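User: Sequence in, structure out. Go.
Assistant: Echoing your sequence, followed by the C-alpha cells.
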Amino acid sequence: MSEAALSLKQRFKLSRFFNGEAPTAGPIVLTQRRVFILPTQRGLAFVLLILLLVLIGFVYNNNLAYLLGFLLASIFFVTILHSFKSLAGLAIQPARQQAVFAGQAGPFSFQISNPGSQPRFAVDLALQSELSLSLAAEQCQTVTLYQATQQRGWQLPGTLTLSSTYPLGLFRAWAPLRFDSPLLVYPQPASRQLPFPDSDGGQERPGQHRRNGDEFDGVRAYQQGDAIRQIHWKAFAKGQGVHSKQYSGASSSELWLDYQHAPGHHTEERLSQLCRWLVDAEQAGLRYGLVLPGLRVPPDNGVAHYRKCLQALALF
C-alpha cells in the first residue's frame, strides 16, 4: 500500500519513533520507513568488548586480538540487517472489534501476516497488554491485545508496537503503529439493580404501567428486575415475604425504558441505569423499547435489538 511522503521535519519528529505516524485504516506493511533499530544493553556491552580487543591488539601488537575484534565487529554489523529482516515485510491490519462496557478491558484484534518465504521468530506485540509469537513462512495469524476503557463512545487503540531482538539480542528493532479502528464502548451498567420502571406500552406516558384490560394471573416470588408496582404489598405487610403480581395481557410483556424517567443526577448516571435495565431485560427475555431525546426504538428483543439499544446509549 502506498503511503504519503513525509517531509524532512516529519521524518525526524521525535514522537514518530515512539508513537508512530498518523492513524490509518490499514493494512500497514513494515518497510524501512516504519522499522527503527537501536542497540540493546547487550549490544552496547558487545561494542565495549570489541573496543577492548582492538585496544589490546594495539597495545600489545597482537594480531590475534585484532582478528577476534574485527570478527566480532563483522558479526555486530551483520546482525543489524538480520534484526531489520525480523520485522520487514510483515503486514498488519485491524480485525473486527468487539464492543465492551466501560471499565472492561477492550479487546483490539489485529491480523498479522508473513508473506515471505522465511519464518519470523520471537516477534513481540504490545498495546497495554503484551504477547509474543512466531510466524511460519506465508502464515497469517489473528492476535488480540487489551486496552483499558474509561468512557462510553468510540475509542481508538493506542500505539501498537511490534518489536524483536532476534537473532542475537544485540539490537532491538521496533515499529510503532496506529490504526483508525475504533472500538465501541457501551456505558457502564449501574451497580445498583433497581426494579424496572412501570410502562404503558409506549402509548401514553413512557414510564407508567397500564393494567387496564389485563387479567390477574396470580403471584410468584419476587425476582430481580420485577417492576415495583407489581410487588404484592399486602402480603409483604403480613410478613409473607416479597411476591410479585402476575398479569396476562400484551401490555405487561412490553417494557419502555425512558431517559426522562431514569434516576440519576446527570447524563452518565441516567445512561448507566438505562444500560443496567437493558442488560436485565434482555436476560429476562422481555420485549423492551428505548426512548432517548430525539430517538425512539420500538419494543423488541434479541441480540440485534439489544446491540442497537446499547449502541444508541453509547453514542448519545
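User: And one key feature?
Assistant: The mean pLDDT is 85.
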